[in-house]
Amino acid sequence: MAKKRIVSTTINGTQRDFLCEPRQTLLEVLRDTLDMTGTKEGCSNGNCGACTVQLNGRPVVSCLVLAVEVDGATVETIEGVACNGTLHPLQDAFLNNAALQCGICTPGFIMQSKSLLAENPNPSEHDIRFYLAGNLCRCTGYDKIVRAVQDAAGKMSSCCEAKV
Amino acid sequence: MRDFDYAAPTTVAEAVQLLQSHKGAARPMAGGTDLIDQVRVGRLTPDLVVDIKKIPELTVLEWSANGLRIGAAVPCYRLYHDPKVTAAYTALTDSAAIIGGIQIQSRASIGGNLCNSGPAADSTPSLIALGAIVVIAGPQGTREVSVDTFCTGPGKNILEPGEFVVELKLPARAAKSGSAYQRFIPRNEMDIAVVGVGVSVTLDAAGQNFVAAKIALGAVAAKPLVAEAAAKALIGQPVSEATIQKAGEAARAIATPIDDMRGTIEFRKHVTGILTARVIQQAVERARGGK
Amino acid sequence: MSTTEATPGNKYTVIGTRPIRHDGVDKVTGRAKYGGDIRLTGMLYGVMLRSPHAHANIKSIDYSAALKLPGVHAVAVCDDFPDAENKIAELGEGAVNLQHLRHNTLAGPKVLYRGHAVAAVAADTINIAEEACKLIKVDYEVLKPVLTAPEAMKPDAPLLHSNVFTNSLGEETKTLSNVAKHFRFETGDLAAGFKAAKVIVEREFNTATVHQGYIEPHNGTAMWNSDGNVTVWCSTQGSFTARQQVAELCHIPVGKVKVIPMEIGGGFGGKVSVYLEPVAAILSRKTGRPVKIIMNRADCFEGTGPTPGSYIRVKMGADANGKITAAEAYMAYEAGAYPGSPIGAGAMCVFACYDIPNGKVDGFDVCVNKPRTNAYRAPGATNAAMATETVIDEICEKLKICPMEFRLKNGVKEGSRRVDGPVYPRIGMIESLEAIQNSDHWKTPLTGKNRGRGIASGFWFNCGLKSAATATVNFDGSVALVEGSTDIGGSRTGIAMQFAETLGISVDQIIPTVGDTDSVGYTDVTGGSRVTFATGWAAYEAARDIARQMTQRAADLWEVPADQVKYENGGVSGPDGKRLSFKDLVLAISKHGEPIVGRGSADPQCPGGAFATHCVDVEVDPDTGKVTILRYTASQDVGTAIHPAYVEGQIQGGAVQGIGWGLNEEYFYDQSGVMRNSTFLDYRMPTCLDLPMIEAIIVEVPNPGHPYGVRGVGEVPIVPPPAALANAIYNAIGVRMTQLPMSPPRVLHEILAKAK
Ligand SMILES: Cc1cc2nc3c(=O)[nH]c(=O)nc-3n(C[C@H](O)[C@H](O)[C@H](O)COP(=O)(O)OP(=O)(O)OC[C@H]3O[C@@H](n4cnc5c(N)ncnc54)[C@H](O)[C@@H]3O)c2cc1C
Ligand code: FES
Ligand code: FES
Question: Helix, strand, or coil here: C25?
Answer without folding.
Answer: helix
